[in-house]
Amino acid sequence: MKRTCPQSKVLKLASLILLLFAMPLFAAPAQRELPPGLIVPEAAKAGPNFDAERATEAYLSVLSGEQRAKSDAYYEGGYWLQLWELLYLFVLVMILLATGVSRRMRELAQRIAKTPFLVTMLYVVFWIAVMFVLDLPLDIYRNFFREHQYGLSNQTFGAWFGERLIALGLEFLFVPLLIAVLYWAIRRAGARWWVWASAIVLVFAIILGVIAPVVVSPLFNEYKPLPPGRVRDEVLSLARANRIPAKDVYVVDQSRQTTRISANVQGLFGTTRISLNDNLLKRTSLEEIRLVMAHEMGHYVLNHSWRLLIYMTLLITVAFFVLHLSLDGAIARWGARWGITDRADPASLPLAVLILAVFMTVATPVLATIVRTSEAEADAFAINAAREPHGFATVALRLSTYRKLKPGPIEEVIFYDHPSGYDRVHRAMTWLAENQVSGEPARSAQTTPR
Q1: Most confident of 112-121, 199-208, 428-437
Q2: Residue 30 above 60 pLDDT?
Q3: How confident is the model at residue 213 (pLDDT cuts 50, 70, 90)?
Q4: Mean pLDDT throughout 423-435?
Q5: SS3 string of the chain?
Q6: CA–CA gap between residue 136 and residue 271 (Å, rounded)
Q7: Considering only CA atoms, which of 438, 450, 304 is closest in space to residue 391?
Q8: Percent of the chain with pLDDT over 70
Q9: By the number of CB atoms within 10 A of the CB, which of 262, 280, 318, 372 ranks highest?
Q10: Each residue of 61-93: pLDDT tens digit?
Q11: Which residues, 6+ apart, have CB-to-CB distance to 192 below 8 Å?
Q12: Beta-carbon neighbour count of residue 69 at 10 Å?
């Protein structure tokens, strides 16, 4: 009998694993994207016999069964991915605590730094580095292989990993300071630390909202002024009509990273910037661009940034209170075994992160509903500001190439942080039906040339 050396077995296993990961990259992807230009099915055209329900079904039928199956699989796979990420985090945290790695990182930080604040910062630097390495396999699958498998990424592995290193650098720059300030609040405020912590997170979020558009975003993409033309004129006209304090429009080169379309109006205290990615500019119609930009302007006009900041702060306050109750109980029971002295011990950070992750997973329906409500309001603003029902419906179909088009009602409440594609198409066609009655035609009843 022929014997196989252990090294050969290891090499074969490694080759098999590599092949399984690489297969999605070599497989011929299904047609994901809709063709460029506005889509207006015959049954959705304005006229005396127009019916919103029939028009909605006509739009839904534009996507092939293969496209819908692919988008359903991607979106539903995300549900399971959330669960596996939580279980994976649980395993990593238990390893760090049970083996004493967390305790030893704190002891090393104490030998290097002398003040509790600097000890905490140094511990967090160690924690970020360790978690980056341990989480890397799942990170690669989640954000690189899976995105290629579903035809949503244009990046090489080198480009993707380079951006991941930039993100890691930003984590090293901002996260240790934030966590050190939170642990300072724990030491200073005692049992009321969770109130102080919520206020600290709010302040950090505001600061990030100011600096992100001008400091962070340009690290990953190039922002160039949109050249003069019909698109720029239309976007700036919408901005002036809705009192958006921006005098230019920027194009972001996101096509080198993703196939998705996107845009935003972001910034606080004079840093407001209107931008759209080059996928939106190159692959869609003027009607769609007007609708998308009106949606993003709706977030600005309706003060969604501030409202969401308040809602999220309230949710985080509850999360910190739950953490306060749970962390003390866990340390009382297992702290001696793990080498954790009290809640102010930075070695407790892995446990705190795990408790917060469990809370946010349980609170997924609350978080999704908060965001989905704001998105629905921005949709309503957009269709009334842009008056582009067919642009709205076409964009909804484009987004539904990676979002499940028609979820069940419970599924939508629990997981959807945006209105579903079906809801958006139906809303657009209902709007068109109502505006036909009023006698005021929609702009996109006829395709507008650029």
Answers
A1: 112-121
A2: no
A3: confident
A4: 95
A5: CCCCCHHHHHHHHHHHHHHHHHHHHHCCCCCCCCCCCCCCCHHHCCCCCCCHHHHHHHHHCCCCHHHHHHHHHHHHHHHHHHHHHHHHHHHHHHHHHHCCHHHHHHHHHHHHCCCHHHHHHHHHHHHHHHHHHHHHHHHHHHHHHHHHHCCCECCCHHHHHHHHHHHHHHHHHHHHHHHHHHHHHHHHHHHHHHHHHHHHHHHHHHHHHHHHHHHHHHHCCCEEECCCCHHHHHHHHHHHHCCCCCCCEEEECHHHCECCCCEEEECCCCCCEEEEEHHHHHHCCHHHHHHHHHHHHHHHHCCHHHHHHHHHHHHHHHHHHHHHHHHHHHHHHHHHHHCCCCCCCHHHHHHHHHHHHHHHHHCHHHHHHHHHHHHHHHHHHHHHHHCCHHHHHHHHHHHCCCCCCCCCHHHHHHHCCCCCHHHHHHHHHHHHHHHHHHCCCCHHHCCCCC
A6: 34
A7: 450
A8: 89
A9: 280
A10: 999 889 899 999 999 999 999 999 999 999 999
A11: none
A12: 12
End-to-end CA distance of the chain: 73
Please give the Cα distance from 368 to 381 (Å, whole number). 20
Which of these, 300, 270, 250, lies nearest to 210 by C-alpha position?
Answer: 270
For 276-329, how does the pLDDT look when each residue is reduced to its tens digit (9 = 90+)?
A: 999 999 999 999 999 999 999 999 999 998 899 999 999 999 999 999 999 999
For the chain, the average pLDDT equals 87
Backbone dihedral angles phi then psi of residue 397, each to the nearest 5 degrees: -70, -40
Q: What residue has token string 């991941």?
A: 164
Cβ neighbours of 188 (radius 10 Å): 11
Taking phi first (over 0 means left), then psi (-120 to 50 degrees means alpha), and beta for anything else, what does residue 270 get?
Answer: left
Structure tokens at 443: 């702009």
Q: d(Cα 83, Cα 384) in Å, to the nearest integer?
A: 39
Q: CA 421 to CA 28: how far, in whole Å?
A: 26
Both structure tokens of 151: 């035809």
The rounded distance, in Å, linking the Cα atoms of 76 and 147 is 14
User: Residue 375 CB: number of other CB atoms within 10 A?
Assistant: 19
- On whether the CB atoms of residues 185 and 122 are closer than 8 A, the answer is no
- The residues facing 223 across adjacent strands are 252
Q: At what angle do helices 52-60 and 421-438 cross, to 10 degrees?
A: 140
Across residues 420-425, what is the average pLDDT?
Answer: 95
